[in-house]
Design goal:
The relative contact order is 0.16. 27% of the residues lie in helices and 18% in strands. The chain contains 8 helices and 14 strands. The strands form 3 sheets. It has an 8-stranded parallel beta barrel, surrounded by 7 helices. It has a 4-stranded antiparallel beta sheet with strand order 5-6-12-11, with no helix packed on it. It has a two-stranded antiparallel ribbon with strand order 1-2. With 333 residues, the protein is α/β, with parallel strands linked by helices. The chain has one domain: TIM Barrel (Alpha-Beta Barrel), CATH 3.20.20. It is globular.
């Protein structure tokens, strides 16, 4: 009898185990907003006065609504032509400028520039103001009070007071206090005082501004400097001396922001050589609530918008949930 091989019963294939799904994590959240002198800002990046025109000049290049805000070119009571050329000179790590506060005047700004700025959604516009007497400052502010769409004033106190032998308002605590108090009385908006670094004690000047009624302070303005052409033996700048800005001044500016923020309780805006997200963070850790970006706009017109994006990425990488938490976050031990 032939033997036939037994047929094994085919086994049903085993069902493979369902893959274990990792829990879905919520995307990281980041709050970039800060509050400056009662003014809500989308982020802490502002364009500095004198480096961003009146804002409208950049609207085809920069998404202005992306910025925390911008400070327009300094405005005076009457139009000013500024200094003769040459008035800009590039240094090894910065720039000398002696523009001479050229501007169209406060009234022309209200008529020609501000209506266009009001069309920019959620734009925070700060008007920089200067003069050669206290009356100049106050009258300029009174003119600007009629303009709708200005969030605050920034007082440039690095101007020479013609009634006191040319000493700048920002170098004498008495003159500074007098100016700020009068400007505060004339103003219908928050008042940011932009301090000069050309002083012995920045903390003393910061306290003088706060005590006189400043809503916030910004620092630093440019450092007094000069350059000479060795061949012609002439100054590189027609005004002989000029203001130094750019990366060269950043470490000094960070130190001054730290000292000023320790001396006052009002918000501080950091200025000086900012070109990277890490620069922004340095100023915030030193005590700044927000920063202004200046010289970087000359070599990269989109610097401010780029810094907003770079700061967002940096904070997400470092798992920072609120940008405002960085302010005064310096660890000393």
């Amino acid at each position: 009898m032939s033997h036939q091989p037994s047929q094994k019963t085919a086994e049903a294939p085993k069902a493979s185990a369902a893959p274990v799904k990792a829990p879905r994590l919520a995307p990281p959240t980041l709050d970039m907003s800060v509050t400056l002198a009662g003014i809500p800002l989308k982020n802490p990046i502002l364009a500095a006065s004198g480096t961003f025109g009146y804002g409208v000049e950049f609207e085809d290049v920069v998404s202005l609504e992306r910025l925390g805000g911008f400070v327009v070119k300094g405005l005076s009571r009457e139009p000013m032509a500024g200094n003769p050329a040459p008035r800009l000179y590039e240094t090894a790590a910065g720039m000398l400028n002696a523009i001479g506060l050229q501007n169209i005047g406060a009234r022309a700004f209200l008529e020609e520039k501000l209506p266009r700025l009001r069309k920019i959604k959620d734009a925070v516009v700060v008007a920089n103001v200067y003069g050669y007497t206290t009356e100049d400052y106050c009258e300029t502010i009174r003119i600007l009070n009629d303009g709708e769409g200005i969030a605050a004033y920034e007082l440039n106190v690095s101007c020479p007071n013609v009634r006191y032998g040319g000493i700048t308002f920002g170098q004498d605590p008495y003159l500074l206090s007098e100016l700020v108090a009068n400007a505060r009385s004339a103003s219908s908006r928050p008042l940011i005082v932009k301090l000069s670094p050309n002083v012995t004690s920045i903390a003393k000047m910061a306290r003088a501004a706060e005590d006189a009624g400043a809503s916030a302070i910004s620092l630093v303005n440019t450092f007094l400097a000069m350059a000479i052409d060795p061949v012609t033996r002439r100054p590189r700048i027609s005004n002989v001396t000029a203001g130094l800005s750019g990366p060269a001044i950043k470490p000094i500016a960070v130190r001054m922001v730290y000292e000023a923020s320790q001396a006052v309780s009002i918000p501080v805006v950091g200025i000086g050589g900012i070109s990277t997200a890490e620069d922004v963070v340095e100023f915030l850790l030193a005590g700044a609530t927000a920063v202004e970006v200046g010289t970087a706009n000359f070599w990269d017109p989109r610097a401010c918008e780029r810094l907003v994006n770079d700061l967002e990425r940096w904070c997400l990488q470092q798992q920072i949930e609120k940008v405002s938490s960085l302010t005064k976050g310096l660890l000393l031990s």
